[in-house]
Design a protein that fits this description.
The protein has helices at 50-54, 79-83, and strands at 36-40, 60-62, 67-69, 89-93. By secondary structure, it is α+β, with helices and mostly antiparallel strands. Strands 1-4 form a two-stranded antiparallel ribbon. It has a two-stranded antiparallel ribbon with strand order 2-3. A hairpin with a 4-residue loop joins strand 2 and strand 3 (67-69). The protein starts with 35 loop residues before the first strand and ends with a strand.
Length: 96
């Protein structure tokens, strides 16, 4: 293998603080920009916890006889609706 005559880049020019932007948390929550929200049909929900398992932001909240959603953190992706084996969840348009 032939050795390169000069390095591809000068590593001494890389700054020590590569991620200075992520020091302040954004006050906006996923629920602030959601366009669709999940609604649970309590008669169909059997508390199988599939929605809780698949939720990417863990906004599913356990109630006494069904699961519900914390709408401040729910981003409205609809994964819970698609994965619910009993069809107990449907998405409705967010009202303004």
């Amino acid at each position: 293998m032939i050795k390169q005559s000069k390095p591809l880049f000068d590593a001494s020019t890389i700054p020590n603080d590569l991620c200075p932007i992520a020091v302040l948390q954004n006050p906006m929550l996923p629920g602030d920009w959601r366009s669709m929200r999940p609604v649970v049909n309590r008669d169909k929900c059997v508390k199988c916890a599939v929605c809780w398992l698949y939720c990417p932001v863990q906004c599913v909240v356990e109630k006494s006889a069904w699961f519900d959603f914390d709408l401040t953190t729910c981003k409205g992706c609809g994964i819970c609706m698609r994965e619910c084996p009993h069809g107990a969840i449907h998405m409705v348009e967010e009202s303004s």
